[in-house]
Structure formats: structure tokens, C-alpha cells
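W.,

You were right to be curious about this one. When I first looked at the sequence I had no strong expectations either way, so I just let the prediction run and decided to look at it fresh. Below is the sequence, 487 residues in total, followed by the output.
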Amino acid sequence: MGNEVFLKLTGIRKSFGGVHALKGVDLEVRKGEIHCLAGENGCGKSTLIKAISGVHSVDSGRIEIDGNQVEKLKPIDAIQMGIQVIYQDFAVFPNLTVAENIALNGEVLRGKKTVNWKQVKKTAKEAMALVGANLDPDMRLEMLPVAGKQMVAICRAIINDCKLLILDEPTTALTDKEVQKLWKVIRGLKEHGIAIVIVNHKLDEIYAIADHLTILRNGSFVSTGKIAEYDEERFTRDMTGHDVDHAKYRPVLSKEEVFRVEHLSLKGRFEDVSFSMNKGDVLGITGLLGSGRGEIGEALFGITPPESGKIFLNGNEIKVNSVNDAIQNRIGYVSEDRLTEGLFINKSIQDNMMAASIQRYFHGIKLDTSEMSRATASLIEKLGVVAPGGDVPVRTLSGGNAQKVVIAKWLNTNPRLFILNGPTVGVDIGAKAEIHSILRELAKEGIGIIVISDDMRELLQNCNKIIVMRNGRIGEVTDNNAERIEL
């Protein structure tokens, strides 16, 4: 089963105007195989998926599905040939029930004029049983968590005679526990002979689930092979086009204190938290969800101020009772949800970069826009933001470049302390390495850097001190000599 090719693409090309999105891409996916498609943001993954599912017609190249060459593939053709795509938004109906979301599509595809509601519920239950999803068929979808909605989308796909299931970044909004459940479902589908394509750029997840890997870069095919043929060095080199430094961060030791908290507490969130940082330190804070790790960052930035304890910045005690207090004391904060809390996505790069420091550019009542433009250009260059200019809307940027804009916004305030919650969530491997490099350089300059994350690989590589939170208290502090930390 695993050797029989279901999908074969040869020399696929696709352009939009003068932009070459795909430049002769090859891909082979076999029945009963889990095949990961990887590449940095903008490499052509999404365009390729839409070509496979008939959303985009290709300019040239050959598409073979189940041994047959296909000309002018349309979405309905792809579905009838067994190709199902689950995008990040799942394309579900929040006002319909679980059963309706799973089964009604099939009723429409089969041309049914009336709906047998008893059969709809029966079909939904059978689909859920196949993947081990324990959901109430009568529950409206808007009541379900992200993982539940994803299971509904998978159930809907497999009841429509799915032969190839494509999942686009399926773990973005899932917890570790939910990811493991998803992998169990995917492996079960593989056992039923379904070909699986997972779009992903997280190396640890790819190793956990993939049989085969194909990497794209800048619209071009780079490499393909069994997952065992890829070590971390080859993976990052093929993804980015250059070697990425995986060396641990080891700062020059300093006795110059940058930041200190003593016995910080906030009822119901965290209790008796004390730590200090010297020049050059990058401090990591981790722990399970609900451990208090994120709440500490929010307290230090004044979002939910601490009820007791002391905060010292560059040797002086400060009070942080509000976000305005934090900003006045030159504390910067990057939220985990950059799209809704860190950026004005419809505004320009310049508007976003200047947002936290706009007062600096007022001379009397006049705003010095030329000075703002110069500052924006300087920040774009310093952080390596890939964009035509500062007037481009942030919504047009990749995840990594958008995150650099958030970082630039706070850098322009000349921060003395910089707190980052999940600084590289949803960011590809190349941009992740660039962001890590930026944070290391800031720490060397004497800015206090706190990284809050559940990504242990990220913390072990970039933090020379790590605090592990457990049930609102500091459970462990390490100087990062260990390779593994138990949460």
C-alpha cells in the first residue's frame, strides 16, 4: 500500500502577474504515507496545495492522480477524486451542529433533494468513531475548542471517500496534548491507506509524524526524501539556503544587575516570585498552561499588576500599577497573540513601529513625519524586515516579519527591560533564528530580556537562565547546563 503513488506532480509552475509562485515543483505522495511539506513563509506551499485541490490552475507541468493524468483540475474534480484539504480556519459552520457540519456536505455532493436527519446523525457518529472523536453530535460548533473543530473537519473529509488528506499547519493553535491526539488520528487514517500531506515547518513535529519530507524554497523544489535522511543541519540548510547557528547562548558573565523582583505575588495567578538578571542575561520562564508563566509577564507590564512584592530596574525600585507605568519605566512587552494585541494589521509598518513612541516625533503640535520615516527605514534594516518599504500594510507580511515589526515598535522606545511571550510562535525557522539573534544582541547591550515560552528547544538554545513555574510558584531555577527540564 505504502509504495503505490496516489499523487504525482512534475514541473508545476504558477505565476501571479510577474510573481513566480511555483518554479517547476515536483512532488510524489504514496497511499498510506504521511508526507510533510515544509518551507519558509512565502516558499509556495499554499499555492501548491491550491493547485492540488484545483483552486489554482497551473501554468505548466503534469498532475497525475491515482495513475491518471488530469487536465484543468477544478475543486469539484479534486473532491470527487478523493482529495480533501483542511485549511487553518477549517471552513466549518459555527452556527450548525457537529453532525450537520460532518454530514451535510456529503448529502449535497450526492445530490440529495431532502435531508434524512436520522441518517445525518448516524453518518456523523460513524465518522467520529473512525477517528476516536468523542463529541456531542447535537452541539453547535461555536461551543467547541479549536481541537474539536479540527476533528469535525477531519470527520467531514473522511466520510467523503477521502484518499488524500491535506492539512495546512494543523497544530498552530493546539496544545501539546491536543497535538498528540491529532497524531494518533493521523496514524489511524494512514493505516486505512489514506495518503496524508501535512504542511508544517516545526522540525520536532515533522520528526514525530512524517514518513517522508519535501522542502520548497522561494517557489522552487529543494529536496525530498525519507525523514531519516534529514538531520537538523540539513533540514535548516534546505529550508533557509544557509547554515543556522544552533549554538547555545553563553553570555560574558557580568555582576552589573539589570532587573530584580522580590516576593512578587498576585492572588490566584502566582506567589512569592523572586529572581534577578545581570547584563547579558536572557531569562527564560516556562511551565505548563496555568502555571503562572504568562501571568508574570502581564504583571511586569502592568496589564494585571502584582498585589505585593518589589520590582527593581537598573538598581532603582519602580512601581508598575498600569501599562502606562511600565512604558514610562521603559519596559517593552510582546504579547503571544501579536495579531490582535501587538499589531494594527491594516496599518502600515511605519504606523506600527512608531505606535509606542509617537510622542518623540512631536515638535510642539507638529508631527515630524520625515524623522519617523528615517527611523522606520533604520529599524527595517536593523531587524531585517523583508518589505518594499515602511508604507506597506502589516497584514501583507509573513509571520516572522510581522513579529519583527512588533519587536521594532518596542525597540524604538529604547527599552531597559523587554518581555516576550511566545516570541516565535507561528514563525518559520529562518525568521526564528533571526529573532533569536536580535534578542541575544539586545541582551549584550544591557537590555534585560525575558522570554516566556513552552518551547523548550527555544529556551535551552537562547536563555542562559531558566525558571520553571509550577502551580503559581517557582519550581526550579537552572543555569541551563541541563539538556532537559521536567515541567
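Here's what jumped out at me. Residues 482-487 have pLDDT under 50 and may be disordered. And, maybe more interesting for your project: DSSP finds 16 helices and 22 strands in the chain.

Coffee later to discuss?

I.
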